[in-house]
Design brief:
Layout: H1 3-16, H2 22-28, H3 32-35, E1 37-40, E2 43-46, H4 54-66, H5 69-77, H6 99-106, H7 108-130, E3 143-147, H8 154-163, E4 171-175, H9 180-187, E5 195-200, H10 207-224, H11 226-229, E6 233-237, E7 253-255, H12 272-278, H13 280-299, H14 306-320, E8 325-331, H15 338-350, E9 368-370, H16 382-387, E10 394-401, H17 407-426, H18 430-439, H19 444-454, E11 462-469, H20 472-493, H21 504-518, H22 527-536
Parallel strand pairs: 3-4, 3-5, 5-6, 6-7, 8-9, 8-10, 10-11
Antiparallel strand pairs: 1-2, 2-11
Helix pairs in contact: 1-4, 4-14, 6-7, 7-12, 8-12, 12-13, 13-20, 14-20, 15-20, 18-19
This protein binds 6-O-phosphono-beta-D-fructofuranose.
Length: about 525
């Protein structure tokens, strides 16, 4: 079947089954639950509360074969330049593979690159943790100021929040925004003599990161003097040559290659701060978890392949039913930045209008991804999700056991996530609402007013991903799950998931506006833009 035919089949199926009730599907097909759930790498995945019938589920899975996913996967894994617009290989998976696998699949150069990077990071991290590498005054490093933005921030920040010890040996402060308040807050209560500043930027040209880095360097110079400051600086970049202009000694520059995309880079030296603060062993375990998911993605049949189940659900909602958003709700405080991470991973990868050769795409692409941690989100925006006529598919991520929580609190948290899945699917009928009103003693007139307001239409789809526990391994598997989901969707939508031309326009215009704000003249703009420039001048 061609991809166009598979998409047409999916659309007509989704259209024909638009009013199908999710909860009725379990009776219609007793095998539904079994066929739409699976366990892998410490994760339980359930897509059985999606809007599809069993036939719709099968149609969605057929997209991958029709799109040639297997061949695309092979191209990625063997290092072919699948990022066609930038003529680059996409090999973040090499960062999780063993030396032997790298050698077999990708040759000596990549094997040596990965190996050397791992060894350098381990030596540096061990040195700081053991106190053999110290600051200019001889004090141990207690805090890292990690400066980076986008892929140079979101991944390591999420991993640190997820895995940081309650009392870390070394703490991390993340600074991303060019708003100086972030750096001011990060450095307000720390001692420069005990602080290591790490600038993380794939390109080492990013305005925000360079501005923050120069400001942080100034803070070190003020506290320690010019000569001492450089002992407190390190950098991570795929363009190491560019770092020397910023006074960073070359033995403290950690590299990675351009075949690691920014939003896929947490597996590289981009996570150096986490590797130092959590210990190299934690990083290895994170890689191992991702590796398990990689192998699963490579070998499991489509109907039992976790990334493909998630991708199929999204494609069914987006292409089949034209639903323009998806809510990601981690019921885990430690995963509170997951939606932010996925916004970049999915929206920067797949929020495109053309294919990698410039041709307009035939289908809608990435939906808006948004979310916040549960239960907080329940008390904020769930009202709209329950009662609006707009259908927002949800993804719940939960953690079964949490050693930091009492049994009682953990049970309360888990009961909320499970109940929300049920509430969105089942809803509340007018009859139930009327019965509730009656039980409350409302008269007929009041019941007629209140009962309709209590109705939740239900039939709103959700997916559940349940982690056994939040460990480096399950976190690695979870993040790799989303990477492969994103990749598979990109293949079906026919786009290049690994470039990001759309973000360039804003960068260019920001430079032009900066000239106008700092210079004497203002260039030609629309009247509103000119007025805004005048207002801040
Ligand atoms: O502007 C988008 C982007 O290029 C992202 O893709 C990237 O993760 C981020 O900026 C930061 O880039 P860099 O790591 O090169 O500073």
């Amino acid at each position: 079947m061609t991809l166009a035919a598979a998409i047409a089949t999916l659309k007509s199926r989704a259209d024909a089954e638009r009013d199908l009730r999710i909860v009725d599907q379990f009776a219609a097909d007793p095998a539904r639950l079994k066929s739409q759930t699976l366990k892998v790498a410490g994760l339980y995945v359930d897509v059985s509360k999606q809007s599809w019938s069993q036939a719709g589920f099968a149609d969605a899975l057929k997209l991958f074969e029709a799109a040639g996913l297997e061949a695309a996967r092979e191209k990625m894994w063997t290092g072919q330049a699948i990022n066609v617009s930038e003529n680059r290989a996409v090999l973040h998976v090499a960062l999780r593979d063993s030396d032997a696998e790298n050698k077999r699949l990708r040759g000596d150069e990549i094997t040596e690159d990965v190996k050397a990077a791992r060894e350098a990071m381990k030596a540096y991290a061990d040195g700081i943790r053991l106190g053999t590498i110290v600051g200019a005054t001889g004090k141990r490093f207690k805090t890292i100021v990690h400066i980076g933005i986008g892929g140079s921030d979101l991944g390591p920040r999420l991993v640190w929040q997820a895995l940081s010890p309650l009392k870390p040996l070394v703490d991390i402060r993340f600074v991303a925004n060019v708003d100086g308040s972030e750096l001011a807050i990060a450095t307000a209560d720390i001692d420069p003599a005990e602080t290591l500043v790490i600038a993380v930027s794939k390109t080492f040209t990013t305005q925000e990161t360079l501005a923050n880095f120069l400001a942080a360097r100034e803070w070190l110079v003020t506290g320690l003097g010019e000569a001492a400051a450089s002992k407190h600086l390190a950098a991570v970049s795929a363009a190491p040559a560019k770092t020397s202009a910023y006074g960073i000694p070359s033995d403290r520059v950690f590299g990675f290659k351009d075949w690691v995309g920014g939003r896929y880079s947490l597996w590289s030296a981009v996570s150096l701060s986490v590797i130092i603060a959590a210990g190299y062993e934690v990083y290895e375990r994170l890689l191992n978890g991702a590796y398990k998911m990689d192998q699963h993605f490579l070998t499991a049949p489509a109907e039992k392949n976790a990334p493909l189940l998630l991708a199929a659900a999204q494609l069914y909602n987006r292409i089949g039913l034209d639903r323009p958003s998806r809510a990601v709700i981690p019921y885990a405080h430690r995963l509170r930045r997951l939606a932010a991470f996925l916004q970049q991973l999915e929206m920067e990868s797949n929020g495109k209008r053309t294919d990698g050769y410039g041709k307009l795409l035939p289908t809608k692409t990435c939906p808006v991804v948004f979310g916040d941690e549960g239960t907080n989100a329940q008390h904020a925006f769930f009202q709209m999700l329950h009662q609006s006529e707009d259908i927002v598919p949800l993804e719940f991520i939960a953690v079964k056991t949490n050693a930091e929580a009492s049994v009682d609190m953990q049970q309360k948290l888990l009961s909320n996530v499970i109940a929300q899945g049920e509430a969105f699917a089942v809803g509340k009928s007018l009859e139930t609402s009327e019965a509730e009103c009656k039980a409350l003693g409302f008269d007929a007139e009041k019941t007629a007013i209140i009962a309709p307001q209590k109705v939740c239409p239900g039939n709103k789809p959700s997916t559940l991903v349940l982690l056994e526990a939040l460990t480096p391994e399950t976190l690695g598997a979870l993040l790799a799950l989303y990477e492969h989901k994103t990749f598979a969707e990109g293949i079906v939508m026919g786009l290049n998931s690994f470039d990001q031309w759309g973000v360039e326009l804003g960068k260019t215009l920001a430079n032009a506006v900066l000239e106008d704000i700092t210079g004497a003249d203002i260039k030609a703009h629309d009247p509103s833009t000119t007025a805004a420039i005048r207002a801040v001048k």
